[in-house]
Amino acid sequence: MPTAIFRTQSTAQLEQLHELLIEYEESLPPDLRHGAPPDLRSLPLAYGGSNAAFLALEDDKAAGCIALTRFDASTGVMKRLYVKPAYRQFGIARALVAAVINFAREHRYRRVVLDTDRERLNAAYRLYASLGFSDCEPYAAVDYAKPTYMELRLQ
Length: 155
Known about the structure:
Elements: E1 4-7, H1 11-27, H2 43-46, E2 52-58, E3 61-72, E4 75-83, H3 92-106, E5 111-116, H4 122-130, E6 134-135, E7 148-153
Parallel strand pairs: 4-5
Antiparallel strand pairs: 1-2, 2-3, 3-4, 5-7, 6-7
């Protein structure tokens, strides 16, 4: 079965998302961690409306996730891109980012921004650059040492 990418909605999907967010957080170097992921009960609010979270399923198993949250009327912040190690190198991360970009366009965002650590998360940085993201000025403060801010302008 090919990988399916879809917006999380059902309770089961939200539970899978929550598990991936925990795994994602634990996979990061300690100084890059964002703190605890949203509580399972708050996920529908955190990722509803003009916000969204997407799951990648491979044979009905959660393989990866990504989220987009509203920053302002024209900007969405892409965050928490994660693909389980066993599913990497199959284009799942690229498909997840594409889902966020499509969602942002549908919701009339004019740009998508993100922050990453170019040195330690270089594969992610290269993926973003290959999809048209470019370095930009900081859009918000982050609590790790060397953030690289990126944006994708949407037409």
